[in-house]
Amino acid sequence: MSPPERLSKKRKVRVLVSIAAELHLQLKAAAEERGDLPQTEVFLDAFAHHHQAVREKYGDSALTNRDGLPPRPRSRPRRRHTGGVSACTLFVTEEEREVVDALAAELAMNRSELVSHLLEAELVGPSS
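Structure (tokenized):
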């Protein structure tokens, strides 16, 4: 097997996240609209397109302008999903999972919260 073939056949791991049911429906629709792509590919596009904006919005750099005081963890209200929550399964490589988890840890979020922010940015548009 040639090196490019080995790279394309990296072992995928199943990652289960909880996202708003409405967002999951939008993800399924976007996957169909994009030529029946797997939902994971839509998520990976969202990560590529929006991870920096999410980092800027929720990262420590957004909290450093405190006149010399150290950064303080952001107090975020709990996300309430009036339409319910849906389990979404993504199939990513171990390396992709590590990158996603590292960004979630950097932003003091869990994986599901980060995935939700990225998908919302990709499918719904920026929120304030």
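Helices lie at 3-8, 21-33, 39-58, 94-106, 111-123. The chain has a mean pLDDT of 84.
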